[in-house]
Write a structure and sequence with these properties.
By secondary structure, this protein is an alpha/beta fold. It is about 45% helix and about 20% strand. Residues about 1-25 have low confidence and may be disordered.
Length: about 475
Amino acid sequence: MKTRGLLLLLTLSLPGLAAAQAARVGDLRYPPLPPFEIARPERVVLDNGLVVMLLEDHELPLVEATALVRGGTRLDPPGRAGLADLAATVLRAGGTGQMTGDALDLWLENRAAAIEATAQEDLVRITLSSLAQDFPDALRVYADVLRRPAFDGARLEVARTQAISEVTRQNDEPDDILFREFRKALYGADSPYAAVPTLAGLRALGREDLVAWHGRTFQPQQIVLGLAGDFRRDEALRLLREAFGDWPRGAQAAAPEIPYRTAPNPGVFWVRKDDIAQSNLMIGHLGIRSDDPDYYAVEVLNQVLSGSFASRLINEVRTRKGLAYSVDGRVLDDWDHPGIAYLYASTKTATTGAGLQALLDEARGLHTRPPTAEEVEKAKQGLLGSFIFNVDSKREVLGELLTFELFGYPLDRLAQYRAGIEAVTLDQVRAAAVRHLRPEEFSLVVVGPAEGRDRPLTDFGKVTELDVTIE
């Protein structure tokens, strides 16, 4: 208490000191960052097309394996949304031809090991974590899970029950509704990028669907597999060839075309939710691909918009106007299709209109009050200063490189990030703001009550009320 009182007294009695300190903050100069090396794994391609990356790290007696499989939820057949999620769950939980699910759980538990499988939008991820001394046996079990899952019927029913329960709760949280309906507004309600599981679709899925999914998805030439940890190269390659080398290459299929809306979809899309006292807001349109020439300029733009407490959105919408505690905005990229560009806020029902207007003003302000040289420089330094934390472990580096490999990006992309950010100019950031945030094309999605708003939603465009009935 005494120390805090003394600090307060000094602050009040020495305003000149505080002013001098504030002035000096703006005069800070950033010295060049020292060079650093990003770990480089060895890349090996097995005869069947499976790509392997090896990154030795003997600091701890652990080995981690990560397999990425091209596929994911966007390849769920029409009317079968939820298949990949369900199949990935049962792939791990259902055991193999050699072990039941219960036996697999016990085997892993006794060795402090773990195998996990999850489906994402564009890939399936299966991971292994094992003590180095158990790694040879753990790798064989891991390979069995990838290659010969049992898809046990009883475990399927457990997973189905859990998935159905999640669907029945999908309208509980306003942000869940908001994100779901925003993606529909941007990609189109019928696009796989916006598909959501239905009760009927989940109930219709049988074990044969999971087996067929595995057969067409899990083929060695569609998989990249990385090892990071305490192993020796030659021994690891021998074990990998024993576990995966006789896996037959599958039929080479052309990458499927995933349909999505390409034209803007301006307007207001409202979901009525009367059991909350707030409105959750998201406005925007499609974003960019990861190989867009503006990628690095957009990274800096995102930092200017909402990358720190001094960023435009947070400073204006949250701090100065007090309209939202939670606010965010950025132009997102995706590997082989556009991501989403959005501005988000949650605000009181009575400030719904003010919140929407503030988000629109900040998007337009990037055109009418373009980023300044100081904003861009601070944004670049913030990105460069935090980048090291994204590559400070070999496991994280390997995960990034596996994704580059899977989607056909150069493996030096991570090493080029720093130079890419450093090379961004003020004019490039300003041009990126104009190209990639176009308020006249925005879809505006609002989740909140029907009564108590400060302005009618029609002030912002044609209003479409959305039906989010669970089916």
